[in-house]
Each structure stands twice: as C-alpha cells, then as structure tokens.
Specification:
By secondary structure, this protein is mainly α. It is 68% helix and 0% strand. The protein has helices at residues 2-20, 31-49, 53-56, 62-72, 84-106. Helix 1 runs antiparallel to helix 2 and helix 2 (31-49) packs antiparallel against helix 4. The longest helix has 23 residues, at 84-106. It is elongated, with a radius of gyration of 15 Å.
C-alpha cells in the first residue's frame, strides 16, 4: 500500500514537472505522454483496489482512488483537433488533476 501511495505522489509530481516544461504552443503529439500518465494512474488505482482488507485496515483510500480514476479517465478526445491555446488550457486542467492527486495522496495516512 505504501509503495502505491508513493507511486501516486511521484506520478503527480512528474505530471506537474512535465507540464511546466511545455511551451504555450502545445503540439498534438503530447497526447502520447498524457496517455502514458493515464495508464500509470489506472494501474496504481487497480493495485490499491486489489489490496486485501487486512492490508488496508484503518486506511481510507476513497479519496486517493477517486483522484487516480479521475487522472486515468481524463478525456483526450478533444485534444488533437483543438488549437494550441485550447490544448494549453486542457493541459492546465490535466495538471490540476495531478495537484488534486498529490493532495489526496498526502491526506492518505500510511502505516509503517
């Protein structure tokens, strides 16, 4: 469980760092990177939901799992046809989801 929570924190930081490095003229090709981040979020959420009740006893993963599902479910269908300015706004939204993920991970107590 602790490794999955740490993985969620790391993923959120990577998304924010990646977004900060992009210019305002965002190419449509960044969708491949978004899809990779989405897949990692989905895998982490799947790992957390598959943990036994004993291993998660006393830990409420509801907020963290919801944040991971939201990142994994980010809709990229409008990204490619959008203008570079609109793509930048969509990426800002995606980064906002990463900030929410970071906050949820920080609020999830970890047992030693």
């Amino acid at each position: 469980m602790k490794a999955s929570i740490t993985s969620a924190e790391r993923l959120s930081s990577e998304i924010s760092t990646w977004r900060a490095g992009l210019t305002t003229d965002v190419p449509a090709s960044v969708i491949d990177t978004i899809d990779a981040f989405k897949a990692r979020a989905g895998e982490t959420e799947s790992t957390l939901t598959s943990l036994s009740a004993d291993s998660t006893a006393g830990t409420d993963l509801t907020g963290l799992n919801q944040a991971l599902r939201t990142v994994a479910g980010f809709d990229t269908s409008t990204f490619t046809p959008a203008s570079p300015t609109a793509r930048a706004a969509l990426l800002d939204q995606f980064e906002g989801l990463a900030r929410n993920l970071r906050a949820s991970a920080a609020r999830t107590p970890q047992r030693a």
